[in-house]
Design goal:
This protein has 476 residues and is an alpha+beta fold. It folds into two domains: 296 residues, Roll (Pnp Oxidase, Chain A); 124 residues, UbiD C-terminal domain-like. The protein is built from 13 helices and 22 strands. Strands 5, 6, 7, 8, 9, 10, 11, 14, 15 and 16 form a ten-stranded antiparallel β-sheet that branches. Strand 18 and strand 19 form a beta hairpin. Helix 4 crosses helix 8 and helix 6 crosses helix 7. The chain is globular. The chain binds flavin mononucleotide (FMN) and manganese (II) ion. Manganese (II) ion binds next to strand 8.
Length: 476
């Protein structure tokens, strides 16, 4: 899948694109998106004629709200669903090759370039999404581009970007993220870190910028692998960083060491449905250049309590990555991994065909200890292979009927969480301890007496079809 605009054409063909006119960036775009997002089949929304902005300066929300759109964005067939979609992404992730970006002289991104006094971010209709947000966010569905000054590779990571004024933004980058580790290398030498931020972004680049790749593995190279074609880049005029040639909106600048300048970032309504990370002094970017295509599209990914997971993209990548991590640890017969729409990484389900006593628990323990899959979780539910892990009705039935709380629930503590975990107690938060506990809920039939477990009664598919065709009028 190449450009955002091509993706939108395909989404439109599926009948999943709607245009909204005359909305205000101040709360209305957020509210319209929040109300529409309560419907699991909500279309992608293109906002145009945004109050105070020229016609054509557009904004996109609900990009990956359905599994069909997520599949299309990844160049897959829109019919893929649930575990099958996770399996396809898992294949992509496990056959990783580096496909380096290629430099091109020209690209639509260069249609409008502003440097020096002309550069500024208020020309874009950045929304204030939720009432108590600390301000307008230009970067939500974005990628922050930096270059490692020692090993000379280019990193892309998604991090939220809040506007301070026309020439300055601040960003929230969690400890340990590569974007932060790279910036720190410049800061340690007393230098400013050169940076570019893409905030009107192609779907695949957005997908990979949110992934945890190994140190030294450029997300550009990974995007090339996923889209089966190298990413095309143009050279940034200020930083020399490679910018995606078909991006909608990019700005360049530098991040001074936080000892020199830091500003309060947040609060921001997070994907958990809470304002958990609050406000804290954060690095700023001094803007030096802005780029945009004609009639640019700002990509926006707001999160809401009514449907906290406003993106299937990350749910599916996360589940696929965890599935690979479990298999790489040598645990076989995993039939599917899923993360609940209403809990995302806090609620993981693993379905497997049990082969020996302890098999299911092994899978769960790896889920807790895995580098990516083990981050920011809470519940890991184990189910047998007759349960579809992406079907919460099935999963709750298995939990209700196969799990004995006293013997089937296991608790682990001191696990890797994050400041955005709303359940970190205040004193622990103040002490900078962002660990939490996890429950493994074993909802598999106990292996030793699985054959004595009461038989399931449900209609078999063949008889079901026979009855359906015999009584067609009833089952229309
Ligand atoms: C939609 C979305 C928003 C995110 N926002 C942030 C953020 O504001 N700050 C942050 O540190 N990580 C955020 N993340 C997680 C990082 O993008 C993710 O951990 C990524 O692997 C970081 O890449 P890096 O290690 O190359 O910097 C977000 C991820 C997604 C998908
Ligand atoms: Mn990275």
């Amino acid at each position: 899948m190449p450009e955002l605009r091509e993706f939108l054409r395909r989404v439109d063909e599926l009948g999943e694109l709607k245009t909204v006119r005359n909305a205000d960036w101040n709360l209305e775009i957020g509210a319209i998106t929040e109300i529409s997002a309560a419907d699991p089949n909500a279309p992608a929304l293109i906002f145009d004629d945004i109050k105070g902005y020229p016609k054509g300066f557009r904004l996109l929300t609900n990009m990956f709200h359905t599994q069909a759109r997520t599949a299309v964005a990844l160049g897959m067939t829109p019919e893929l669903r649930g575990v099958e979609l996770v399996r396809a992404v898992k294949e992509l992730l496990s056959t990783t090759k580096r496909v380096p970006a290629v430099s091109v002289g020209e690209g639509p991104l260069l249609e409008n370039v502003f440097t020096g006094a002309e550069a500024g971010v208020l020309r874009f209709p950045a929304p204030k999404l939720h009432r108590e947000d600390g301000g307008r966010y230009l970067g939500t569905a974005d990628a922050v581009i930096t270059r490692d000054p020692e090993d000379d590779w280019v990193n892309l990571g998604t991090a939220r970007v809040q506007i301070l004024d026309d020439k300055k933004v601040c960003l929230y980058v969690s400890p340990g993220k590569q974007t932060r580790l790279i910036a720190q290398k410049y800061w340690d030498k007393g230098k400013n870190c050169p940076v570019a931020v893409v905030c009107g972004i192609d779907p695949v680049l957005f997908a990979v910028a949110g992934l945890g790749l190994p140190w030294g593995f450029s997300e550009y190279d990974f995007a090339g692998h996923i889209q089966h074609a190298p990413a095309q880049v143009v050279k940034g005029k200020i930083t020399g960083l490679p910018l995606p040639a078909s991006a909608e909106i990019v700005f360049e600048g530098e991040i001074p060491p936080p000892e020199i300048e830091a500003q309060m970032e947040g609060p921001f309504g997070e994907w958990t449905g809470y304002y958990a990370s609050g406000t804290r002094p954060s690095p700023v970017i001094r803007i030096q250049a802005t780029y945009h295509r004609n009639d640019p599209i700002l990509t926006v990914l707001p999160d809401f309590k009514t449907y906290p997971l406003s993106s299937y993209l990350f749910l599916i990548f996360c589940a696929a990555g965890l599935w690979n991590e479990i298999e790489q640890a040598g645990v076989t017969d995993i039939r599917g991994v899923w993360q609940a729409e209403w809990g995302a990484r806090f609620f993981t389900v693993i379905s497997l065909k049990q082969r020996y006593g302890g098999h299911a628990r092994q899978a769960a323990h790896i889920a807790l200890g895995a580098r990516e899959g083990g981050y920011l979780g809470r519940f890991v539910v184990l189910v047998d292979d007759d349960i579809d892990p992406s079907n919460m009705q099935d999963v709750l039935w298995a939990m209700s009927t196969r799990c004995d709380p006293q013997t089937s629930i296991e608790i682990a503590s001191g696990c890797w969480s994050s400041p955005i975990d709303p359940r970190i107690p205040p004193a622990q938060r103040a002490a900078g301890d962002f660990t939490n506990s996890r429950a493994i809920i074993d909802a598999c039939r106990p292996f030793a007496w699985r054959d004595k477990f009461p038989k399931v009664h449900s209609i078999d598919p063949a008889y079901q079809n026979e009855i359906k065709s015999k009584w067609k009028e009833i089952f229309k």
